[in-house]
Amino acid sequence: MTSSKYLPLITTIAVFVLAYLICIAQFPSMWSTRVIGNLLTDNAFLGITAVGMTFVILSGGIDLSVGSVIAFTGVFLAVLLQNTSIHPLFAFVLALMITTAFGAFMGAVIHYLEMPAFIVTLAGMFLARGVSFLLSTQSVPINHPFYATLQHLYFKMPGGGRLTLIGITMLVVFLVGSIVAQRTRFGANVYALGGNIQSAELMGVPVGRTTIGIYAVSGFLAGLSGIVFSLYTSAGYSLSASGVELDAIAAVVIGGTLLSGGSGFIAGTLIGIFIQGLIQTYIVFDGTLSSWWTKIVIGLLLFGFIALQRGILWMSEHGSVSFRKKAAA
Amino acid sequence: MKRFLSALRRLLPQLAALGIILLLNAMISPGFFHVEMQNGRLYGSLIDVINRGAPVALLAIGMTLVIATKGIDLSVGAVMAITGAVAASLITQGYPLVATLGGTLAVGLFCGLWNGALVALLDIQPIIATLILMVAGRGIAQLITEGIILTFNDKPDLIFVGSGAFLGLPMPFIIWFVMAILMVTIVRRTALGLLIEAIGVNRRASTLSGVGSRSLLFAVYATSGLCAAIAGIIAAADIKGADANNAGLWLELDAILAVVIGGNSLLGGRFSIAGSLIGAMIMQSVNTGILLSGFPPEFNLIIKAVIILIILVVQSPTSQSLWTFLRRDRHPTAKQERAVR
């Protein structure tokens, strides 16, 4: 049983390693810390929000609002820094407070009004996108010296690759997320909710508090991701980051988390992000392929992993049935 | 007649919401209800609502059936992009209109059958099964159009589907209305609708009691794909071209909202296609109203979100039980009064 719990994660890692080996065989220059550094930097915002999405999906929910919240955070920061003289760090704190409260509010609506997460976060998606339209419909540049300082913070890895601040932020978020999911009571409650909400309630899991906490975490991480995105692009634009929620969900599923909730690992999501990034890097290296192949390949990967999960489930059920038969005999 | 009245009573909240929004629109722009005949076709804001709402209305018809089986179809927007691309590519290659339409509908049907196979045969959760096509669909559409916007300005017969008029009414409206009548007749004049509801309430129990759940699920997702294909043709014919990136973008969400606003539960079971269509018209009236009001379009999404929230809160189980609680509270006092008398 333990092996079937880890099998999706192991498969994801195997697919990533295999894909990377194929890439290196074709383009030997992809084996460099530069490529790895860029992989981390380019996917940092997606990775951070995907951690929040993993928590939500582990609990059996879904959060469609993250892309809009990222765009909102970017526009909010840009407008705030353009029109006032407050320090960016203070603006970051403000943005995180707003997005966390927004997430908590959606969680409260989902819990207390007993409405499906899908519809509530869909309304949240419209709301966040609409508010960022209100703030500005144009792309607002950010030219704060503090931004320049943050953007030039990096470790030089051997081989010339740069491990940037936002890349490190993503890795730290993944580390903290893993610890919270595996080693804290909140994490255990999240898994319990995803397993079976009624049993969780009967076991004494505080369903309301946990639900609100989960969506607050997702809102917080979407806000953090928005900050990272604004550092990455040096601008805030209300139309940016549309469809990021889909990429995040895809990364979570490719990372081996069951969309029905209750089973999966934060670390798997990191590999899911890497696989998506690798496909994009490969298309860039190839130069002749069009970018829409990314979507098709991700679709195929999604299908492959979902079929694999079904296969594992079927085998484990089948196995336990034959085991029971033997025991009866 | 009795059945019609009871159906009307069930749809009362939705009809009231539609009425209120239409009245608000009329307050914002006084000429809202004005409809006039020009060059043999009707013009006016009301006609605009039923015309522009066609893609969402069509998607909502298929989506209602899917949601009634406790499923969801996220791929319809992407299927619209694929079928729009197929239609444009076939017609520009010189195929006649009938072959183009037939081929496009077949592609939509195939997309629906793919979703149906994942849900019915592989037992994958509908939200994930249809996510696959949602993610990959636009890529496939790009592949068909080879990354450009395929235009067909010189094909009046296909353009007629999107902007022509018949008996004074716009073609898109006629198409969705006929489709709606057809689907309602199919599911309500036979036992099919009841069986679909049975699957939504408890798929295992209905399978065990002899309902052909698998083939019905196939049929339901295929219908959704077909509706998306028709919507895709209309959307492409309307702009005289196939835009793989933007055709049907986020329309799956609009369609799901139309179904939910129409009073259907996302948990499956009892459904009403008429309710979903009223939901679609509510959404389109809101859009048209915002346009007419001269509000900056930036407000569009916020107003939409607030209206959705209000309608959802009114429909939520918690406020429903609060409502019954309040009503129950009133009855004993009424009885007491009677007893006193």
From TrEMBL, chain A:
Query: Per the annotation, which location comes first and is thus the protein's main one?
Result: membrane
- Membrane topology for this entry? Multi-pass membrane protein
Q: Which residues cross the membrane?
A: 6-27, 39-58, 64-82, 89-110, 116-135, 163-181, 212-234, 246-279, 291-308
Coiled-coil region(s)? none
Where it sits in the cell: the answer is: Cell membrane
The record's Gene Ontology cellular component field reads:
plasma membrane
Tell me which InterPro entries the record gives: ABC_transp_permease
**Keyword Membrane recorded:** yes
Q: Annotated Gene Ontology MF terms?
A: transmembrane transporter activity
- Is this entry keyworded Chaperone? no
Q: Which UniProt keywords apply?
A: Cell membrane, Membrane, Transmembrane, Transmembrane helix
Q: Which PANTHER family match?
A: ABC TRANSPORTER PERMEASE PROTEIN YPHD-RELATED-RELATED, INNER MEMBRANE ABC TRANSPORTER PERMEASE PROTEIN YJFF
The name this protein carries in UniProt is Monosaccharide ABC transporter membrane protein, CUT2 family
UniProtKB/TrEMBL annotation, chain B:
Q: Where in the cell is it found?
A: Cell membrane
Write out the transmembrane intervals: 49-67, 74-91, 97-121, 128-153, 216-237, 249-267, 274-295, 301-326
Its placement in the membrane is given as: Multi-pass membrane protein
Keywords (alphabetical) are:
Cell membrane, Membrane, Transmembrane, Transmembrane helix
Does the keyword Cell membrane belong to this entry? yes
InterPro entries per record: ABC_transp_permease (IPR001851)
Which Pfam families does the record associate with it? BPD_transp_2 (PF02653)
The record's GO CC annotations read: plasma membrane
Taxonomy, superkingdom: Bacteria
Q: Name one GO molecular function term.
A: transmembrane transporter activity
Q: What is this protein called?
A: Monosaccharide ABC transporter membrane protein, CUT2 family
Organism this protein belongs to: Consotaella salsifontis
